[in-house]
Amino acid sequence: MSFPAKLRRMGTLVLTEIGQLLTLDGPDAVDRTQSHGPGADAAAVKRAEQSARVVSNACLVICDGTVRYAGPRSDAPTLHSLPDPVRQESVGGRLVTPGLIDPHTHLIWAGDRSEEFDLRNCGASYQEIQARGGGILSTVRATTQASDEVLLQSLRKRLRYALQRGVTTCEVKTGYGLYPEAELRLLRIIRHAQEEGDVDVAPTFLCHVPPPELGGADTSERQQFVRSLCAAVPQAKALGATSIDVYCDAGAFTRNEAMQILQAGQQHGLALRCHAEQFTYTGIAEHAARLGARSVEHIEEIDEAGIAALAHAGGVAHLLPGAVLTLRLRVPDARRLLRAGVRVALGSDCNPGSSYTQNLPLMMSLACTQMGLSSAEAWLAVTRHAAQSLGCSDAGVLRAGARGDVVVWDADSPREVCQRLGDPLIQRVYRRGVAVR
Fold first, then answer.
1. What is the three-state SS of the chain?
2. Is the pTM higher than 0.90?
3. In the sheet where 200-207 sits, what is the strand order?
4. Distance of CA 410 to CAs 168, 306, 307, 407, Å?
5. Which in 87, 206, 219, 232 has the greatest CB count within 10 A?
């Protein structure tokens, strides 16, 4: 991941008068040996709070874009020992946290699907809308017709909006091209946005759904299409993709097709992701986890075997409250995952149809109130665990050597951010120690 020249600045930023500093630098919150008896959930919440590691009356020092110190003000380095120029800024007793990480988005698209919002609210199902030519296929048509410049400008706008919501690192999937060349086109546009934007972008090559004109899974045309996607993986990697993702469900790819695509990605060194068990159970979560998938995503219909495989492999479960709410799906039980030793991340799933939001703090609130996460677990899910799923070991945490991506909140504590249901509490955002909001 590259950084714009305007962020490659020398010098030191010192944030003082921090009421609470959420470092996320404590011990690992996941304990795969934990019991399932009384008190297990309370113990897990306690571990999450220890992992979150909150420091009161704190100071944060960022030198040349990297954290030098994050801890009590009494132990902070002296100003004269820091690289010049030194900028000292008070946050007035506010909460300071790492920049948020959105590990699941579909930010590059054209077109409008607001009519579908009303159709769903009047009883039409996701599958019925797609069968009428709406849904993903509607966005594919609009995206295909849009110019590169229109797509680039809209993506930049969405990335800027994400930044306003505290997101400094963001996964962006292709997926609204369907055919290999169209998906590679979207990767080229993502790369341009990545080079110039304030948000650090992790590009994913998404195999979304097979074009309906190819027929069922057993047709020669469909089999050739899957082979063409697999053949495009080296080009996708050359264009900057760090991951490959495939949607396996009714109306999307079959489990066998999805495994072919994931194996092609693995062969060429891409991290593996999978849209899994959203509407129907397919078994792909278990198979993808056994293959080494870094994340499985949605998982409303996951079974115990899938959870066990994910825990054993150390993969991350991406829960997407926006899609659950919009589509009225079964609400995933986050505690069930945590009891099994699975790390949980939260994403916006921002897309024009089923989760049109970039408000990651709202996703935290929904995960707490609807999915059973504690506030500390929700914070881990949009920082440290999301960073792990994207392979960004220096993001989502404030400790010496981490990237200096920081959010200042008009809040007294981390719990307040989760409680406030997406209220606009962000006062400042820094990326690599440079104010970007």
1. CCCCHHHCCCCEEEEEEEEEEECCCCCCCCCCCCCCCCCHHHHHHHHHHHHHCEEEEEEEEEECCEEEEEEEHHHCCCHHHCCCCEEEEECCCCEEEECEEECCCCCCCCCCCHHHHHHHHCCCCHHHHHHCCCCHHHHHHHHHHCCHHHHHHHHHHHHHHHHHCCEEEEEEECCCCCCHHHHHHHHHHHHHHHHHCCCEEEEEEEECCCCHHHCCCCCHHHHHHHHHHHHCHHHHHHCCCCEEEEEECCCCECHHHHHHHHHHHHHCCCEEEEEECCCCCCCHHHHHHHHCCCEEEECCCCCHHHHHHHHHHCCEEEECHHHHHHHCCCCCCHHHHHHCCCEEEECCCCECCCECCCCHHHHHHHHHHHHCCCHHHHHHHCCHHHHHHHCCCCCCCCCCCCECCEEEECCCCHHHHHHCCCCCCEEEEEECCEECC
2. yes
3. 100-102, 167-173, 200-207, 243-248, 271-276, 295-298, 316-319, 343-346
4. 18, 40, 37, 10
5. 206
pLDDT tens over the chain, length 437 residues:
444 545 555 699 999 999 999 999 999 999 866 556 668 899 999 999 999 999 999 999 999 999 999 999 999 999 999 999 999 999 999 999 999 999 999 999 999 999 988 988 998 887 788 777 788 999 999 999 999 999 999 999 999 999 999 999 999 999 999 999 999 999 999 999 998 778 999 999 999 999 999 988 889 999 999 999 999 999 999 999 999 999 999 999 999 999 999 999 999 999 999 999 999 999 999 999 999 999 999 999 999 999 999 999 999 999 999 999 999 999 999 999 999 999 999 999 999 999 999 999 999 999 999 999 999 999 999 999 999 999 999 999 999 999 999 999 999 999 999 999 999 999 999 999 999 98
Q: For residue 2, give the amino acid letter.
A: S
- Cα dihedral: 401, 435, 357, 94 (round 10): 80
Instruction: Give the residue from 27, 6, 26 showing the smallest Cα distance to 70.
Output: 26
From the list 104, 13, 82, 7, the residue with the least C-alpha distance to 398 is 13
Q: Is the peptide bond before 72 cis (omega within 30 degrees of 0)?
A: no
User: Whose structure tokens read 């060429």?
Assistant: 268
- Residue tagged 């409008």 (tokens): 112
